[in-house]
Each structure stands twice: as C-alpha cells, then as structure tokens.
Amino acid sequence: MKFIISLLSTPAVLLGVVACIGLILQKKSVTEIFTGASKTLIGFLVFGIGASAMTGSLQNFNKLFQYGFGITGVIASPEAATALAQSTYGFEVSLTLILGFILNLVFARITRFKNIFFTTGHSLFFSCVLVLIMQAHGFSSTVTILVAATILGFMSAALPQFCQPFMRDMTGGDEQAIGHFNMIGYGLSGYLGRIFSKHKEETTESIEFPKWLSIFRDFLMGLSIVMLLLFYVATIKAGQTFTQELAGSQHWLVFPLVQAFTFVAGMSILMTGVRMFLAEITAAFVVISEKYIPGSRPALDVPTVFPYAPNAVILGFISAYTAGLLAIVVMVSFPSVFPVVIIPAAHICFFSGGTAAVFGNSSGGWRGALLGSFVAGLLLAFLPTILYPVYGTLGIEGATFPNIDYNVVGTTLHKILQLIKPI
C-alpha cells in the first residue's frame, strides 16, 4: 500500500496514469497507450529540469537586483513562478489541474457556460495560484484540491463568456471562444474600445510598424533580449565586487550573459515538458467533451485571434510594455506602498497586451486597441503586488503570476479566506 500511495503521490506518475486512462477511453492500442503515458511522465520530469535551471538563474538575478537597487525585483512570469512552486506543491497542483479539467466539463454540461478550456498551460498556472493561496491560509491538501479545482473548473467555463460578444464580432459566429486567463482584461479592453465606437472603422491595420519588432513574435528571442537587459542592468548597478562573488571563477561580465541565457534555456526546456505532458491529457478531454457535452465550444489560445488584427498585436505589445515600465517608476517612487517592484516580461506583454489590443480594435479601432492594451498593461503590473506577499509566506519569491484573471480571482479568494482563516 505504501508503494501505491508513494507512486500516485508523485506528480509525474499521477499525470501518466490520467493520460493512460484518457487513451484507454479513446480506444487506442496498447502501444499507443504505453507511448502516450510514458511521454506524459517524461514531459513532467523534463518540466522539472527546466524549472530547476530557471530557479537558479532567478535567485542570482534577485541577489544582483536587491543589492544594486536596494529593492526587491520580481519577474512577472507565470512559467518562472510555477517553476518555483512545483517542487513543493507538485502533488496538489497536479490533482487540482486534473480535477479542474473534469469540473470544467461538468460546469459546461449543467450551466449555460458551454466553454471547454483547452489552453491547458494556463490551467496549470491557475492551479498553482489557487493551491498556493489555499496553502498559505493553512488548509489541508484535500480541502485545497477540492476548493481550488472547483474554482478552476467554474472559471474555465465561465470567464470566456465575458469576451464572447467581441469574439462574435471578430469571427462572425459563436463557435469559438478565447481561452487565456486574461479574459477579464480582454473583455474590459473590448468595452473600453466602445468609448471610440464612432471611430471603429479606423483600425490598426492601416498602421505600418518597423519589421524589427517582429522579433518579439518569437517567444525565446524576445525573452532573451529582455533577460539580457535585465541581468546587465542589475549587474552594473550591483558592481564588479559583488557580482564577482556570485560569479566565482567566471568573469563578472560573462556571468550575467550566461545567467540570462540559462534562464531562457530553462524556459525552453520547461515549455517543452509542458507541451509533452499536456498534449495527451488534452486529447482525452477533447474526446469526452465532444461526446458528452452537446453545444459546447472550444476556448482556444490567443494566437487564434491574431489574424483578425495583426497590427493590433504589435501596437498592444508596445502599449502594454510601456504601461509596465511606467508602473516600475510608480513602484520605485512609492516603496512604502509597493514593497516589491514588478518587472514586466516581454512575452507576457506581447501575448496579453497584443490580444487586449485585438479586442479593443474590434470595438473602437486603433484608439480602442491603444487604450485597452495600456489598461491591461497596468493591471498586469499592479495586480500581482497584492498576492506576492501571500506567496512569500510559502517561500515563493523572485517571480509571480501577472495574469489578470489569476489576480482578480486569487485576490477575491484571499480576501474571503482572511475572514475564515487569516494568515
């Protein structure tokens, strides 16, 4: 019995078992079942290797940043934050993810919210947020998993509905939903765009952008540029003596170069692992939803809306990143109000700010795109400051979850739990 409990308490094995069940339901061959389950297990282990590399790099960045600027700098990256959390709470997060998938299907079956959330990487990050908040308030693993999975399942079905009026305008139908946990921000951007509804026809597609900005479409290249800048700024500010102590035998100016690319390499490994272990699980839930939930529609990742306004994506990235940089100035200026400084991640601003702009553009042209993405950028920067101290009670420091939905739902949960079981 101890062997079975230990086996199923290992997140990689647990996800492999779930993938195995899903493949059996799809009536796959024995070879396909073994291959799929093995890929899932291996994928989660690969995820852990990438997480370890990122964690080490982040720790060095934080030391440089804190020593140089005398403040705590936090990377706004859900991948990095998940990497920090998964080693301690991997079991709870895995079960929350699986049960949340199932409850998404249940809520889609019994409510008017017929959205099946297929951006499973975001479900993983949201699982992490909810588990960390529950654990910070001292709840048992069982209660944590049940509450977190219920919230995840319901939000996965309900939140895409907020964006659906604008999805209908863009796609000309109701067969597809957006599935990306910034949906409160995207819907808000659409509604803000309506302020400029008289200028709706003046869209972003009449704007010409420099071709070099397209480098940020490549996730790893954009991340590399930003991490190099961040590491060298922190290194120069910290000075040669302190940096050399961290670098050991490595030259102090080579150290930030290696650390920046180590972080990016870790991110690449981590995302490869995520794709491996989520692919089989997602396929199982696709089969189940198609068979048992009539009238359901897939909630898909943000690149599915990019073709409707490609220029809006570039404008949204610039606008959201500018908002993030302005937020840094505000946070540094008021350290008593903001004990940490949230550093915007380029890939988050590109995908989230860009998508917000697409929604704003659909209702208010380029003006709506600009306003909607700028507001989204501010929310991505300021909202995480509320929950960061909560994660800190569990030793999760140096990175945080910037996405708007995580923080709106997470902060609401935290405030409610404060009344029941204060930290």
In short:
This protein has helices spanning 2-8, 11-25, 30-69, 78-110, 120-136, 141-171, 183-193, 219-238, 240-247, 254-292, 310-333, 346-382, 384-392, 404-420; strands at 72-76, 115-117, 177-178, 297-300, 340-343, 399-400. It has 423 residues and is mostly helical. Helix 4 (78-110) packs parallel to helix 10 (254-292) and helix 5 (120-136) runs parallel beside helix 14.
Widest sheet, order of strands: 5-1-6
Give the averaged pLDDT, no decimals.
88
The share of residues in helices is: over 70%
Q: Compute the gyration radius: what is it?
A: 21 Å
Residue fraction in strands: under 5%
User: In this structure, how is the largest beta sheet organized?
Assistant: 3 strands, parallel
Q: Determine the number of helices (DSSP H or I, runs of at least 4 residues).
A: 14
Tally of strands? 6
Look at the helices and sheets and give the structural class: mainly alpha
- Count of the separate structural domains: 1
Poorly predicted segments? none
N-to-C SSE string, H for helix and E for strand: HHHEHEHHEHHHHEHEHHEH
* Span between termini: 35 Å
| Bulk shape | globular
Organism: Clostridium intestinale DSM 6191
Subcellular location: Cell membrane
Membrane topology: Multi-pass membrane protein
Protein name: Ascorbate-specific PTS system EIIC component
Name its key features.
three-stranded parallel β-sheet, 423 residues, globular, 14 helices, mainly alpha, 73% helix, 6 strands
